[in-house]
Amino acid sequence: MQWAWFDPAAGASGDMILGALLAAGLPEQALRDGLQRLGVPGWRLEVEQVTVHGIAATRAKVLLDDAPQPHRHVRHVVDIIAAGDLPPIVAERAKAVFERLAAAEAAVHNTTIERVHFHEVGAVDAIVDVVGACLGLHLLEIERVACGPLPVSHGWVDCAHGRLPVPPPAVVRLLEGVPTRPLDVAGETLTPTGAAILTTLCEQWTLPAMTWGRSGYGAGSKDFGIPNVLRLTLGETAPQPAAAVVIEANLDDMNPEWYERAVERLFAAGGLDVTLQPVQMKKGRPGVLLRVVCDPPRREAVTTVILTETTTLGVRWFTVQRDCLAREWHEVSTSFGPVRVKIGRRAGRVLNIAPEYESCRQAADAAGAALPAVYAAAAEAARRLVDSDAEAPH
């Protein structure tokens, strides 16, 4: 499982998150192509390589033309996202970020979410930042996001409501329940957009157990006298814990069309496995047994999705023990192009080789080939990789 670990040494903004994703390997053209599908005019993305206090970093900045940008309600932003032809998980995450931001703004201004005007955070640059961050995580095949405690600075910031103390009131709301640490810097180091993205998408605030891979730094635009960068490290999850939680519910009165969304939300909430099984319930009624397997810390989030996205009035849950193969990901070369494969080991012995579906599908589409042929080629290439590794001196 692929992790993204954000280390906000000097804070975070939407631009810095985009820069960090690009620095960690996000293809720039793929990001641009995806953002163009939003159909929102009046902006361009400027990307440059910079050095910040001796650290090589990527600065990504959304530049607007001279046309005035309208104030938007959350429904307008959601409509833009929905019309953007984005992958479902990207649209879902981006919508969740803006809804969380709207809730914070509504609480600060003593109004409702529907009546919130986003002002500068609802402008095109914030839409591009939020959607770009969610799209970048998807393109990098990130499944889970973690972040270190968010730094809180001091001072003042000028915005649409005038001069406000740092952190701004909306950021204070977004930080409720989130670990923070003091940063002795005068000025805004954590923007509402950056705070909304991280507090919405991050599922834990400690470094995950993972094998470190690529890393990169996103550069901020201000100089606080310290390296104003956001570090992002990608990595594969370490061996999975022995304990898991199984959450179940019996459903006999749910519209079948709702299952697809419920399953998507359950995986997004941390479900490791989601299954639907036909069962016969009381009085001979046909029903469906919904079963979700998740890590113990995700039990509450998964339960909330079940109770809000299905018709059940309650769930049952229990802890189980499990044995898992140690998993590693490799990219192998085939005649159809590069394909990612998963290799499972136990005590160093390879017991399972599985080509990754999305990678095979992309290769098949690009080559105009049959999906089974790509699977077979990827599996054979992975076997050769395993055999050569076994023969190599250690």
Overall description:
With 394 residues, this protein is α+β, with helices and mostly antiparallel strands. The chain folds into three domains: 2-237, no CATH class; 243-321, Alpha-Beta Plaits; 326-391, mk0293 like domain (Ubiquitin-like (UB roll)), CATH 3.10.20.300. The chain has eleven helices and 17 strands. It has a four-stranded mixed sheet. Helix 4 packs across helix 5 and helix 10 packs across helix 11. The model has no long low-confidence stretch (mean pLDDT 90).
Structure in a nutshell:
With 394 residues, the chain is an alpha+beta fold.
Q: Pairing-aware structural class of the strands and helices?
A: alpha+beta
Largest sheet: 4 strands, mixed
Tell me the number of helical segments per DSSP (H or I, 4 or more residues long).
Answer: 11
Supply Rg.
Answer: 23 Å
Uncertain regions: pLDDT < 50 for 5+ in a row?
none
Number of strands: 17
Strand order of the largest sheet: 4-1-10-9
* Alpha-carbon distance between the two ends: 27 Å
**Helical fraction:** 25-40%
Domains, number: 3
What is the residue-averaged pLDDT?
90
The gross shape turns out to be: globular
Beta-strand residue fraction:
25-35%
- The run of helices and strands is EHHEEHHHEEEEHEHEEEHEEHEEEEHH
